[in-house]
């Protein structure tokens, strides 16, 4: 895989997470190809730190999440690296790190794209579904196989339910079966499905398209999208009405309308 970043020093796991920002796009890569990019506690914590970096960086307008190599986006938890070596409460708190990472991505205030090739399983499946968009190659495989090893995909239930019909989600969790890229597209949680040799260019084109939009409007709109998912219909409509009024008061809304009327590209503030 080319063009997916340099490592940022951050403790013992810095080489496991690569990070770069270029042309408005922050690229985060899980760099554990020998373990199919499976996640340890340290890798998750470093991912959270890099997501925080992207959130604070005004030059990062969109975040691309990827896995190194061509065999996996992320095969879930590295069970060999997650054996509890502390007390019960410490282990329980550590298991919440994945939930915190998902919340970090939802609260990022910037669009996110998962670049998926190979396996996206268990926690890796949930991580991909947490992103706003998924661009996958035809060799991608998705699933929540936890039941096959006597577990249940508790921590990724929310992103699964936000990405597909509930009964389909339950069927995948009950059976533990995996689905190929074509079935994933039919279920509806893929944004784009492309051949492996088109994956990088498709992700780059989509990321640059998103990066060209107003960061202010994307933040307001994206935050509203996730907020109303947890609201009743009446609460959602009231919230959206207020957000529409707020949005019309921004400089970028005025600039966008002016640019449309004057038939010129907008210059976002």
CATH fold topology of the largest domain:
2-enoyl-CoA Hydratase, Chain A, domain 1
The mean pLDDT is 92
What is the tally of helical segments? 10
CATH domain class name of the largest domain: Alpha Beta
The total strand number stands at 11
Cα shape: globular
Give me the side-by-side strand order of the main sheet.
1-2-3-4-6-8-11
Helix/strand-derived category reads alpha/beta
Q: How much helix is in the residues?
A: 40-55%
Tell me about the biggest sheet? 7 strands, mixed
Describe this entry's structure for a reader.
By secondary structure, the chain is α/β, with parallel strands linked by helices. Helix 1 runs parallel beside helix 2 (88-106), helix 2 (88-106) packs parallel to helix 3 (123-130) and helix 8 (215-228) packs antiparallel against helix 9. It has helices spanning 41-56, 88-106, 123-130, 157-161, 166-175, 181-187, 199-211, 215-228, 233-248, 251-261; strands at 6-7, 17-22, 25-30, 62-67, 72-74, 112-116, 119-121, 133-137, 141-143, 178-180, 192-194. 44% of the residues lie in helices and 17% in strands. The strands form 2 sheets. Strands 1-2-3-4-6-8-11 form a 7-stranded mixed beta sheet, with helices on both faces. It has a 4-stranded mixed beta sheet with strand order 5-7-9-10. The protein folds into 2 domains: 6-211, 2-enoyl-CoA Hydratase, Chain A, domain 1; 215-261, Lyase 2-enoyl-coa Hydratase, Chain  A, domain 2 (Orthogonal Bundle), CATH 1.10.12.
